[in-house]
Amino acid sequence: MRLSGVVDTVGGLGLHDHVGWAFTLADDFRAIAGQFLADGLSRRERVIYVAGAGTGVPAGLNSAVASGQAEVTSVAAMYGAGEPVEAERQIGTFADAVERALADGWAGLRVAADATSLVRTERQRAAWMRYEHLVDAFIAGTPIAGLCGFDRRVLGEAALAEVSCLHPALTPDSSEFRLYSAPGPAAGFALAGEIDPGNRPTLATVLREAHPAPRDGRITVDATALTFIDHRSLALLAEYATARGVTAVVQARPGSVTTMIADLVPMGGLEVQVVSP
Amino acid sequence: MRSGAAAGHPGYFHETAFYDSAEQFLGVIVPFFADGLAAGEPVISAFAPGNQSLVRDVFGTGSGIRFLDGGEHYSRPATAIRGYQALFGEYVTRGAPQIRVAGDVPHPGLGAPWDWWARYEAVVNHAYHDFPVWGICPYDTRTAPADVVAEVRRTHPHVANAHRHTDNPAFEDPAEFLRARSDTWRDPLEQGRPALEVTGPTTAQARATVARAAGDLPAEDLNGLLLAVSEAVTNALIHGLAPVTLRVWPGPRRVVVTVTDAGPGPRAPYAGLLPAERPAGNGGLGLWISHQMCAFVGMHRGREGFTIRLIAGDLT
């Protein structure tokens, strides 16, 4: 089971977990990444630390680097020198790295990266949102775990929300909602947390840039962990589906805000499936 | 062809009647229903239990009258309008030339706050305009307070008694009536200081504040209240004037929330009881959704500005 929710620790994370970590001090992120990777070392995973500018190398990695279990690299070497990320190519790079780790006898791969320099501009973030959406599905189905660090002071609130909301787990005060790869066979995406006029623009941006793909004429949205959504934000999902000529099939709990709105305000392109716990 | 007093009248024929005995009540309602049945028109009886039994006793079973549970149908004015519009639409689709309907509109004599039902009585002149409906709203002057009777006189274009149906000279333009009106009813809980008061909350902070105070409500009541609070704060921030103040009075089985801003409140006279006239999902629905979900919604205009009062849970 992947970890989903708001977290303030990286302790106990396993393969398939994907965390967006907002930090205000580079040293803090280095320490958090160190903990995250140390857990991987003890679980016999290969670990990669992708250092951001000036964030240094976590203590305790050196002997693992010598043994080949750990690798330290730079953002430029791993992702490119500040150009918008190319999602397919980047995921291919990680897929190769996972294969090598498994071939070398490790249980999987664990990557911690300070991604701040990759999401500073609007153009970078647009590419990054698509990448995060695709890589989250990749992580969900591959023995890999990822910790993406974002410098809160460099990015500001709005940009931080855009890039961090695409993680199933994230730090407090990063984004009030999350959009991530859904568990279960329907294979759409999951929405969790709260969506209202305050962060509706972020949802609109993320839908536009991540552009989740329909399957068999529908986009399945697991909204069972969505605790609040207003009718205009729900309408965004309907409009997104309609623009693609498909139906958004939104799975929601009985008596939830999502179900109550859909009962009152029928929307073209939206169908709510009531799912009991 | 419409039968009876509404013959030749386009749209909704909205009538009241005042009575102070069962005989007077039946003197208006029995011929009203019997003539409709004789003309082959759909007849709907939506009274509270007392009056509903009087009607049943006269007509017996198999009369063709459609009995609606008045208590349930008139739980909220916005849901009553939605329910009637759907019902009238079905009858019109099936070719009904006229639909006759009568029911007990709630007021303090029947245990409900009047304010939003006063608005209902004005709004339905517009809301049912597209249907060939003849509706009688009889009021029992033994239980209806004088201020209720006074507003009933201002909101019904026609008035009936056992002998005749006449135009009501006291009828006022519904939009003007609504623009000039302010809901003044307050919950007894408001006699005490609010347990929580927040100035300038975001929508998320407002919801979190209310959720903290209202944790004992059933999930649907709480979710409905959170939707309404969120819409109220959104409207105050977008359309109102600062400062926006949220106040919460938690009670045993119910919660009262007010959101006040310094602005004049919504200008559209039918706002709240009817959805804004835009496509679904395109905005303008928030206040209407709140009216569908809360146990009471009051819209007060006063010196402090505009206050929307939202109550969830058990009103009595």
From TrEMBL, chain A:
Q: Which InterPro entries match?
A: MEDS_domain (IPR025847), MlaB-like_STAS (IPR058548), STAS_dom_sf (IPR036513)
The positions making up the signal sequence are none
Q: Which domain of life is it from?
A: Bacteria
Domain (MlaB-like STAS) ranges: 191-261
> What are the TM regions of this chain, as residue ranges?
none
Q: Which residues form the MEDS domain?
A: 17-168
Which protein is depicted?
STAS domain-containing protein
Q: Which organism is it from?
A: Actinoplanes cyaneus
Taxonomic lineage from the root = Bacteria, Bacillati, Actinomycetota, Actinomycetes, Micromonosporales
TrEMBL record, chain B:
Is the keyword Transferase assigned to this protein? yes
Gene3D superfamilies given for it? Histidine kinase-like ATPase, C-terminal domain
A family per Pfam: MEDS
Question: From which residue to which does the signal peptide run?
Answer: none
Keyword hit for Kinase: yes
- Where do the Histidine kinase/HSP90-like ATPase domain residues begin and end? 204-311
Q: Which keywords does the record carry?
A: Kinase, Serine/threonine-protein kinase, Transferase
- Return the InterPro entries for the record: Anti-sigma-factor_SerPK, HATPase_C_sf, HATPase_dom, MEDS_domain, RsbA-like_anti_sig
What SUPFAM superfamilies does this protein map onto? ATPase domain of HSP90 chaperone/DNA topoisomerase II/histidine kinase
Instruction: Give residue ranges for domain MEDS.
Output: 14-157
* Molecular functions (GO terms): protein serine/threonine kinase activity
Protein name (record): Anti-sigma regulatory factor
What is the protein's species of origin? Actinoplanes cyaneus
